[in-house]
Design goal:
The structure is a homodimer. Chain A contains 9 helices and no strands. Chain A has 2 domains: 47 residues, Arc Repressor Mutant, subunit A (Orthogonal Bundle); 134 residues, Tetracycline Repressor, domain 2 (Orthogonal Bundle). Chain A is mostly helical. Chain A is elongated, with a radius of gyration of 18 Å. At the A-B interface, helix 6, helix 7, helix 8 and helix 9 of A face helix 6, helix 7, helix 8 and helix 9 of B. Chain B binds a DNA duplex through helix 3.
Amino acid sequence: MDSAVARERVLDAAEELFYGRGIQSVGMDAVRGASGVSLKRLYQLFPAKEQLVEAYLERRDERWRGRLAAHVEREADPERRILAVFDWLAEWFGEEGFRGCAWINSYGELGATSDRVVAQVRAHKRAFGDYLASLVADAGRPAALAAPLFLLAEGAMVTAGITGSTRPAAEARDAARLLLESR
Amino acid sequence: MDSAVARERVLDAAEELFYGRGIQSVGMDAVRGASGVSLKRLYQLFPAKEQLVEAYLERRDERWRGRLAAHVEREADPERRILAVFDWLAEWFGEEGFRGCAWINSYGELGATSDRVVAQVRAHKRAFGDYLASLVADAGRPAALAAPLFLLAEGAMVTAGITGSTRPAAEARDAARLLLESR
DNA sequence: TTGACGTGAGAACGGGCGTTCTCCTACGGT
DNA sequence: ACCGTAGGAGAACGCCCGTTCTCACGTCAA
């Protein structure tokens, strides 16, 4: 099996397991079993579990932001694009197996013990914040709007994860609309 | 040593360790060492670690909401009381050793594996949401205002934890003020 | 054909940790 | 004084898990 293929299979398995059950409760042996890649190859590809975790967060970040951007770009009006972010959150929250934000969860799990995980989480959140800021700028709105929109989105992710409801997305969207109208 | 005293010492130690380093990375032996309560008594008081975790979250919930309410009640004007919540968040975020919301972190760490922890987290968040709703009602404002205020607060907690900054509290406060003014 | 090499399966190693057990000491009631 | 009980210190037990090692097998170059 090609090395690149093995890598993908490992990351696919790791993502499903880490996101669904938490990182610490998933052993390398479970990743081996779910991916079909032997332990030996697994350790050649990722010399330690922490590096697999890093790669998992990194690839998920690319995909997550890609999916968000793809959804937002289907909307032409720059103002509505901002609200489309919250529509996409609603879709995401409603997906089978949704269990909150992977980065917020990872921070809760490993924030105190792994600097590299913290760096990944910060990078992801900064990228998401920057993206929101770019949408605000494209709509010709004051830059100060980006921060509250970001907080609403984060609050919605956390709350949707904990309560298992998609409602926070709609609530955040309503609040975002009010903020947009008030300035 | 009195049983009640031992219990308090254990919970004090557990809270400091669990909050500061994460729950899974703190062994019962560390709790013993930090509390000065022997393993035997520790297991008499809390027959399993999960029950200690539950008790930790429960006691912290009482104290956390107590501190918040005490701060809010220093403000007489019911409208300003709502904003006082965010002022208190700023104080909290600035405390030495602040590392985000204990319940959000616990959910990230154990949400997938411990139903009892999930129940604690939900109970805490519901209580906080209900408290916000009561402040909104006392101010004679539409009940629909409570949800966005809650999301702003949650987003601020998460963001302050991850970035280590107190700024999200001020940003959330500003957004809350705008929402209050717009309705 | 042969031999070096990569690989897979799974055992093995080392350490950590939740929980229990052992043993010893101290003390309180009679 | 004696005995039963509680408690402390820490060893011990099981189990899990990250990581490495063993060994047998297949492959490909010379």
